Amino acid sequence: MTLDERIAQAQRHVDGGRRIVERQREIVARSGLPDSIDLLDLFERTQLIFETDLADLLKKK
């Protein structure tokens, strides 16, 4: 996989992760259930990994 392909894949992960985090925030806002909050925390930590990976790839370019 080329660097450009890896960047494109990482960008898709970041974009998809943002949508997931936003949906989960809406669920937490409605329910506030501990399980929903825990899941949001997990999604936010995963999103940080995606964004860090993308930033690292962009630095290599």
From the structure above, extract its key features.
2 helices; mainly alpha; 61 residues
The low-confidence parts are none
Overall pLDDT level: 97
Instruction: Tell me the total number of β-strands.
Output: 0
Give the CA-CA distance, first to last residue.
Answer: 14 Å
Helix-strand topology string: HH
- What's the gyration radius in Å? 14 Å
Overall structural class, as computed from helix and strand content, comes to: mainly alpha
> Describe the biggest sheet?
none
Beta-strand percentage? under 5%
Which percent range fits the helix content? Answer: over 70%
The structural domain count equals 1
Global shape: elongated
Number of helices: 2
Q: Which oligomeric form is depicted?
A: single chain
Description:
- The longest helix has 29 residues.
- The mean pLDDT is 97.
- The protein has one domain.
- It is elongated, with a radius of gyration of 14 Å.
- Helices cover 92% and strands 0% of the residues.
- It is mainly α.
- The chain has two helices and no strands.
